[in-house]
Amino acid sequence: MWWHYRRTPKRLLDLLAAAFLGIALFLPVFLLALYARARFHCRPRVGREGELFGEWTLGFGEGRCGRCCRRLGLEGYPRLWNILAGDLSFVGPRPLAADEPRPESAVQAARQVSRPGLYCLWWLRERSNMTFGTEWEADLEYTERCTCRRDVGILLRVALASLYGAPVTTSEPLVELLGIRINNTTMDEILAEVEARVAARDAARLFFVNADCLNVACRNREYAAALGRADAVLGDGIGVKLGSRLTGQSIRQNVNGTDLLPRLCERLGQAGGSLYLLGARPGVAEAVGAW
User: Is residue 185 domain-shared with residue 79, that is, in the same domain?
Assistant: First the structure.
């Protein structure tokens, strides 16, 4: 049972954190739940090794206190008991409902090795607008690289991503930030557009901009004009998402070059296409080509 020993520090971290939070939050949560007349709910979930367990939550009413408690996430306080009992972890694949369709066998086998978690890699990617691939692929990636250090990193990013709100469901085709019009597209859509232009031998200019690029464009009119002549400008980074939220807009996906390049290489490889790499220090382009 090699995985048991590898996850012993993770389990210890779960126990210590759940015990600390449970004790620290007990009195305020108890008083708020009593005032709001909250009720306990228990829902069947699929745990490790496919065993069912009851996931506990608090149900708050529709009053002002209840809405405030839900906004603070206090309905999930009883899940700390699930963590102490060994049913859940702070980080792990999303616990599936008992009647929810299971993923394919390979992913299911990998998921069953780990305890389900309050937060998962897919949850983080939804909030960060980086929902490339599928939830099952994200689960497989997590289980293959599961370490305490990685879990702590995910939790830190979860704390930041919680400020961004729910994932985007609808949005306008263009977002304007500091005078720059950004194409509000997805990774799949931009890859399909690039493939179509390559097949039609139709030249185009695509630019990635992050928050710093937008600041530079405010000071550099020539750079701003170049962005204005581009066939597509793609928002890259969480700063662009925060900027869009501050202006009452929504970015659909964080279409960044780091994630786009390997996917573009894969698609062009399947279609018999090629890339010409320009720039960087001597030897970098050759190294990327060998990769």
Answer: no
Residues 35 and 68 in one domain: yes
Mean pLDDT of 229-247: 84
**pLDDT tens track for 67-88:** 888 878 888 889 999 999 989 9
Per-residue pLDDT reduced to its tens digit, 33-67: 888 888 898 999 988 888 889 999 888 877 788 78
Is the pLDDT score of 2 beyond 50? no
Domain count, the chain: 2
Domain end position, chosen among 146, 164, 182: 164
Range of the domain at 140: 2-164
What is the DSSP code string of the chain? -HHHHHTHHHHHHHHHHHHHHHHHHHHHHHHHHHHTT-EEEEEEEE-GGG-EEEEEEEE--SSHHHHHHHHTTGGGTTHHHHHHTTS-EEESSPPEETTSPP--HHHHHHHHHSPPEEE-HHHHHHHTT---S-HHHHHHHHHHT--HHHHHHHHHHHHHHGGG-SPP----SEEEETTEEEE---HHHHHHHHHHHHHTT----EEEE-HHHHHHHHH-HHHHHHHHT-SEEEE-SHHHHHHHHHTT---S----HHHHHHHHHHHHHHHT-------SSTTHHHHHHH-
